[in-house]
Amino acid sequence: MQHDFESWGGVGRAYGRGPSAWQGGWAGPVEAGPLGGVAMVRGENISAQIDAAAMLRETCEWAAINSGTGNLAGLAEVANRLADAFAVLPGKIELVEPAPVTTIDAAGNEVERAHGKHLVLRVRPDAVRRLLLTGHMDTVFPVDHPFQKVERVDADTVNGPGTADMKGGLCVILHALRAFEATPNAAVIGYDVMINSDEETGSLSSDALIADLARGKYAALTYEPSALPDGTLAHARGGTGNYSVTIRGRSAHAGRNPQDGRNAVVAAAELVLRLTRLAAEDITINPAKIEGGSANNVVPDLAVLRFNIRPRTSEAMQRFDGQLADLLAELAAEHEVQIHSHGGVTRPPKPVDARAQKLFDLVRNCGAELGQSIGWQASGGVCDGNNIAACGVPVVDTMGVRGGAIHSPDEFMIIPSLAERAALSALVLGRLASGDHL
Ligand SMILES: [Zn+2]
């Protein structure tokens, strides 16, 4: 049996002696010696476990099934395929009903929006140290979008909808866990895998599920594609919020009695101008669309304004909430209209705290052991990593494949990155199972 902690950078540290020690909690370092007296797993051994050809085959099969966020039949088919594939792992798989979600239609009415089911796999729920791995099965391409086919571009590249974002990433989760489960220390940690069906539209029907699963987890990994094709990870992220503001005035004849009307379009226009003045160093505001209005000879009684905000800090997010409430109350009074606001921040800002930074460092060190050089940079994008970080759980959220041009028909995945990233994750899991502290 090899006891080569040195190669893990762990310098002779070991924590406990197998599952019983874990159940007793983290008593701190004990005398050197691996958990349960078994050999530690090296990066090259993990890499040898990964079946790159199977990964490419599965990714292409899953990507060939349309699973746009609104395509419930396609999502159901992908969910079933995933449930079959993930059944090779220990634990229990469940398809979870989406939480109800409403949206505001062009007539200003609140209507329900249907979503697909979310997949959850729970492995060793009683382990003391538990992790969360998340991904999404939906894509941004609706069932009638022209981009549906997966095509090989060259030896190292495939082009197809959702190959990078993120069916390739789902395959990385599966094969990383398979490789990890084959390591001697796997049994000491537990994990949940959550694959939602609505990430691309803001995870509104899965955010409560994500928060529920994140609670109490030691760390989390999310499998969005790398921020750059070279494997660079996304570090801190801003947040995002989407709003629909419905303004109801009073209609009147534009010539006979315009003074009796209350013009909803004018109120919406003023709202747009005043909203843009709330933009600051730590928050951007994008008025995106105004619907409503009526014929030229009618004072319009309805307008719906949609806008997006991008707060960089929680402080900016909270400040905006207060400012918006004040602004809507003022405009309602000035224009004698009724105003209803729907929506809000769906993804809070994701700063990187000390523990999250340690997780980044761990990923980088594991990459180095595998000959992968891994850096990171801040990102303007958002994902489920924002929601997980908001629960106080350290997360690295771009553990998926290398690729690019996502959300466009040029989306591509770099084929060798499938096995490369699976080995990276398996090694990170192995390190967390051998007692690395965050
Ligand atoms: Zn994605």
Task: Give your account of this protein's structure.
There is one protein chain. This protein has helices at residues 19-23, 43-49, 52-63, 72-86, 163-181, 207-214, 264-276, 314-335, 354-369, 384-389, 416-433; strands at residues 92-96, 101-104, 110-113, 118-123, 129-136, 151-154, 157-159, 189-196, 219-222, 233-237, 240-248, 283-292, 302-311, 338-347, 376-379, 395-396, 403-404, 412-414. The protein is an alpha+beta fold and 438 residues long. It has two domains: 5-237 and 350-433, Aminopeptidase; 240-347, Alpha-Beta Plaits, CATH 3.30.70. The strands form five sheets. It has a six-stranded mixed sheet with strand order 1-4-8-5-9-16, with helices on both faces. The protein has a four-stranded antiparallel sheet with strand order 6-7-18-17. Strands 12-13-11-14 form a four-stranded antiparallel sheet. Helix 3 (52-63) packs across helix 5 and helix 5 (163-181) packs across helix 11. The radius of gyration is 25 Å and the shape is elongated. Mean pLDDT is 91; it is low at 1-39. Bound molecules: zinc ion. Zinc ion (ZN) binds at residues 136, 165-166, 199, 224.
Question: Could you tell me how far the N terminus lies from the C terminus, measured between alpha carbons in angstroms?
Answer: 27 Å
Order of helices and strands: HHHHEEEEEEEHEHEEEHEEHEHEHEEEH
Number of helices: 11
Question: How would a crystallographer describe the biggest sheet?
Answer: 6 strands, mixed
Number of strands: 18
Helix- and strand-based class? alpha+beta
**CATH superfamily descriptor of the largest domain:** Zn peptidases
- Which regions are unreliable across 5 or more consecutive residues at pLDDT < 50? 1-39
Instruction: Give the amount of beta strand, in percent.
Output: 15-25%
Query: Architecture of the largest domain in CATH?
Result: 3-Layer(aba) Sandwich
Mean pLDDT equals 91
Q: Quick one: CATH class of the largest domain? A: Alpha Beta
Fraction of residues in H or I helices: 25-40%
Instruction: Count structural domains.
Output: 2
Shape: elongated
CATH-derived topology of the largest domain: Aminopeptidase
- Taking all Cα atoms into account, the compactness measure Rg is 25 Å
Strand arrangement in the largest pleated sheet: 1-4-8-5-9-16
What small molecules accompany the polymer chains?
Answer: zinc ion
